Amino acid sequence: MVLDEEPTDMHMWVNPPETELPLSSSPCRVAVGTPSGPSTNSWRIWVHGDDVYVKCRDHFREFKVSLHASGIWRVAFTEEFIRSRPDFLPEGKDRVLKRWQPSFADPTRPVIGFQVAALTPTLHLKAQDRRSWPDSVVFVEPPADNQRMAVLSVTVVQSHKPLRIAAGTRGAVIAVLPLGEHRTVQVVATHESPGDITATIEDEFRKAAHQLGGPSAFPEEGLFFVWGNRDVDIPWVTAVPFQRLDRQEGA
User: Fold this and answer.
1) 251 domain-assigned
2) Containing domain of residue 21, as a range?
3) pTM
4) pLDDT, tens digit, for every residue of 15-50?
């Protein structure tokens, strides 16, 4: 990504229809999918002082990303969740899943703080599941190709100019939110190759099944929440719906 003011080509749905993009005020609410078709959960990105926060507004409210002006960035379970479920963390474990310090030494380099990855086959929420959603949620089109994925990137930029997506990449800037005098936090949508994310999901699902005592320990259906790292210091998450297929006797 490089800095530029030119728009990029990607379909998005906003309400009211005259809403101008990129958004310029906090909070920003976004999901991958369409208003009439399936979608991901919605994510809320907001600025408080000089800090940036990201949180799922649906199934995974216990998960929160904090990009602090102090230079300490964190991915963690919320304090409220751990207080309500002290059994959730093994003894001696921290509710913080990842803590790191990004580098802003290069003022021309955007720094990605967090990504939501959405493979098109994993879009699971239907219109009736979203009746409580605010009208302000921006829907971002998923890739037409099931071998691609949509990525929502929360990026800190040392400029007030919107990012320009790299040549050959389908994407757009959803929001440019002021972050102090010289920076902005920009929410960017792109269509990308999944890379090793698909393999990571499969590996983690197998590990979870083993820890639970086998696939039969899973509920009949549900959502599998996965998080990982891209390029060492870019945490990402995804949610994959699953359905248990019990084999019939003699099958």
Assistant:
1) no
2) 2-243
3) 0.89
4) 999 999 999 999 999 999 999 999 999 999 999 999
